[in-house]
Design goal:
The structure is a single chain. By secondary structure, the chain is of the alpha/beta class. 37% of the residues lie in helices and 17% in strands. It has eleven helices and twelve strands. Helix 1 crosses helix 7, helix 4 packs parallel to helix 5 and helix 8 crosses helix 11.
């Protein structure tokens, strides 16, 4: 067979944070594609504090532990890695309250992964495979207050330690890419819905409960006013964009390798209207507004967002609020289990 026409080699994929709700959705999508023959895997390696269940027909290597431990990361790179999806993090509220934990995972853990990529490249005299490194960053790098419009020229200015560490990690991804240690891309994700009903330290978790609770007849307190506006995407949309990032040509990426992903922009009133349209008028009586100035300052004053660079590179949002609600809730398994 002519090498120029040979099929691409099936990748060895590493997913950090694989037991988290986005990580589990990503792993499920990778396994589904492998089973269907549309996205064969040579090997799938996961890192998390708890193991990810094995899947029939896929060489799965589940590494238990924290990326804050360099030895854990080294075990994940026992075989050459082609794609890294770095989702592991200590989320916003927890990182703010526990600085050392946030620093060790969000910053030092990311450096451990990047250094492992660079060491892989350096092996065989610099001829090792260069991994595509997909880093899940956050719109939290922009901080607050925000300008009238957030776009590709908006300068980051984080308001929390979580966003600060993510911005520092973005710089590291760009620097390791410049040095040839990886082929990196940082994706600034907005809120992802719907988060499972479990304590996570995320102060934005109420948005997921707004999608879930009223539809089940439960009263939900919204800590933002009806006029408050936010950004969000569904879990399937986030996974779509993560997978697209694994193969998007480097020529379409900015020099700093960070892209703000498209997301829907909507008010709490528009969200409730969409829930009523989906589930019926009884939903409206289940929502009580009790604005919290701190929460609204962090998540409820988000202006329109323009992301031409990401759109030109092939990334997308959910399209409309009705689609976001459908995809966010249909992605959840029965009985409220974590996806």
């Amino acid at each position: 067979m002519n090498p120029a026409t040979a099929a691409p080699r099936a990748p060895h994929v590493l997913v950090t944070g694989a037991a988290g709700f986005v990580g589990r959705a990503l792993v499920a999508r990778l396994l589904q594609a492998h089973a269907r023959g549309t996205g064969p895997l040579a090997r799938l390696t996961t890192i998390d504090l708890s193991a990810v269940p094995a899947a029939a027909g896929v060489p799965l290597h589940a590494v238990e532990g924290s990326i804050a431990d360099a030895a854990v990361v080294q075990r994940a790179f026992a075989e050459p890695v082609d794609w890294v999806f770095h989702l592991a993090s200590v989320p916003g509220g927890t990182a703010e309250q526990h600085y050392e934990l946030g620093r060790d995972v969000n910053l030092h853990g990311t450096l451990h992964l990047l250094e492992a990529c660079a060491a892989q490249v350096a092996r065989a005299g610099g001829g090792g495979p260069v991994p595509r490194f997909v880093f899940a960053s956050t719109v939290g790098v922009f901080g607050a207050p925000l300008p009238p419009v957030v776009d590709d020229d908006t300068s980051p200015c984080p308001a929390m330690t979580y966003g600060t560490h993510k911005l520092m990690a973005e710089a590291a991804v760009a620097d390791f890419t410049r040095r040839g240690g990886c082929d990196g891309i940082s994706l600034r994700l907005a809120g992802v819905l719907a988060r499972p009903p479990a304590p996570t330290g995320q102060r934005s978790a109420f948005l997921s409960e707004l999608l879930r609770g009223p539809a089940a007849g439960r009263e939900v307190v919204c800590p933002m006013s009806p006029e408050a506006t936010t950004w969000a995407s569904s879990t399937p949309n986030a996974v779509d964009n993560l997978l697209h990032a694994a193969s998007v040509p480097a020529a379409l990426l900015p020099r700093h390798r960070a892209l703000t992903l498209p997301a829907l922009h909507f008010s709490m009133a528009e969200l409730i209207d969409a829930l009523v349209a989906r589930h019926g008028s009884a939903v409206r009586a289940c929502v009580r507004f009790a604005p919290d100035p701190v929460v609204e300052a962090l998540f409820g004053r988000q202006p329109p967002m323009h992301t031409p660079a990401a759109l030109a590179a092939g990334f997308c949002d959910d399209g409309d609020l009705a689609t976001l609600l459908r995809r966010a809730t249909e992605a959840e398994p029965p009985d409220g289990d974590t996806p």
